[in-house]
Amino acid sequence: MRKILFEWTIENFSLCYLNILKSSTFPEGVNKEITWCLEMHGLCRDYLSLTLILVSCRASQVVNAKYKFSILNAKKEEKEITESDDILSYTHNGKSHCCKQFVRRDFLLDEVNGLLPDDKLTIFCEISVFDYVRSSYDPVTIPFKPDNVGLLLFENPEFSDITVRVDGREIQAHKAILDVQSDYFSRMLKSEMSETQNNYVTIEDIDYETVREMLRFIYTGKVENSENLGKITDLLVATDKYELTKLKVMCEKILCTRLTVENAAEILILADFYRADYLKAEALDIIKSYLTDVTDTKGYKSMENSHPHLVSEVVQSLAKHK
């Protein structure tokens, strides 16, 4: 998690608060990967609103962040603190989230409250950007040339030489591709098993849709419907048995973008069991960052009983970062 701090001072505030006010872009400097700005509206009834806007990020990047807004008085003390309740997703340049009732206008303008020393309003913005969701995922591709060869061969019965049977259904495949892309399939195809000698493989421990998506990745280096959390979880489980390292990496990165307070404990258990170290580290990170909220979830309470060693890891991780 990274923190971005920004102070925005508005001079002669009492003369301009009815206008739409916009801050400079921050953080300043060249080669900044992610930049933001603030926008204040004073026309809303009774309240001033404050909006956080994502100005720039990399193409296809998903920026997940929380914000905290406050007003600094003459002693630089934070007053009128407002925080986002959840982690917010900024999916493209110009994406924004608005705090519609940042501060009551009459309260702010009242000199007794000391929020406008010398008619200056100083807004303090703290943004927490979570690195585990910096991007949707970095594409992992299989080095086929031309790029569409795998797609043309996937589920194409022409020249196929092996049949994958699952849930009473069949998928046509090619031994050479299975051999190159999966050590598990390579050993199976080179064994003396009667199945492979008869040019078919039966898979009984994974459902049809998961096997089909696994084969799609073997052929094309891609998966479909990556927003389906259950589907990606099933794929991660499959990669453990069928030794598909690149698919495992992709599944871990996708699941990192789906981490929430509510599911962090369940994903930690999953990552630990299937030795998904990258995903496990990111699940631990969100648990540490939102410990109070996470410990109130059913998933965490269940983990305390079923996986006490993971609770110990959380405690040890917290101790290391104090």
From TrEMBL:
A GO BP entry: protein catabolic process
Family annotation (InterPro entries): BTB/POZ_dom, MATH/TRAF_dom, SKP1/BTB/POZ_sf, TRAF-like
Domain BTB: 160-227
Coiled coil: none
Top-rank lineage group of the source organism: Eukaryota
Record-linked Pfam families: BTB, MATH_2
Residue stretches making up the MATH domain: 3-127
Record's protein name: Speckle-type POZ protein-like
Organism: Temnothorax curvispinosus
Gene that encodes the chain: LOC112457962
